């Protein structure tokens, strides 16, 4: 069982953006930028190649919609879609997930250095706090609302 299975089961907290029959979207605990989201299939598989075509299409469609909703809800200008597809590609959670990382005006140095840091083995998990969770919940709600409005 992966940590994402535990989030999907409701055993661990997360700031959810979207949930449907096939996937969930919640904010990354260690965000590269504000609103950094993870699109996670409910099916617990490690590699993209293990997903069937309809599920693959679905999670990429949802990732596209999350990117659009980050722009509408948070004012980002564009987004990176990133999949670390295996441990040798810096995958730390063995459960397929698409990172949707928003980009903001003037953020090149900060975001690029954080992406490098994110992909390195130096990454340390952030501590949970009530204030931090509330801030993440507010950000998730803004993306979620924009996603519903653009559906
Ligand atoms: P990757 O390196 O591609 O496997 O990214 C895994 C991401 O998952 C990483 O950016 C941090 C995030 N993450 C790990 N544990 C948790 C957690 O418990 N909650 C949330 N929201 N994100 C997590």
Describe the structure concisely.
By secondary structure, this protein is an alpha+beta fold. Helix content is 40%, strand content 17%. The protein is built from 4 helices and 5 strands.
Layout: helices, strands, pairs:
Blueprint: H1 3-8, E1 16-19, E2 23-27, E3 37-41, H2 53-74, E4 78-82, E5 98-103, H3 108-119, H4 130-149
Antiparallel strand pairs: 1-2, 2-3, 3-5, 4-5
Helix pairs in contact: 2-4
The protein binds 2'-deoxyguanosine-5'-monophosphate (DGP).
Residues 3, 12, 14, 26-30, 84, 90-93 line the site of 2'-deoxyguanosine-5'-monophosphate (DGP).
Can you offer a commentary on this structure?
By secondary structure, this protein is of the alpha+beta class. The chain has a single domain (3-144), classed as HIT family, subunit A (2-Layer Sandwich), CATH 3.30.428.10. 40% of the residues lie in helices and 17% in strands. The protein has 4 helices and 5 strands, in the order αβββαββαα. The chain has helices at 3-8, 53-74, 108-119, 130-149, and strands spanning 16-19, 23-27, 37-41, 78-82, 98-103. Strands 1-2-3-5-4 form a 5-stranded antiparallel β-sheet. A hairpin with a 3-residue loop joins β1 (16-19) and β2. α2 packs across α4. The structure holds 2'-deoxyguanosine-5'-monophosphate. 2'-deoxyguanosine-5'-monophosphate binds next to β2.
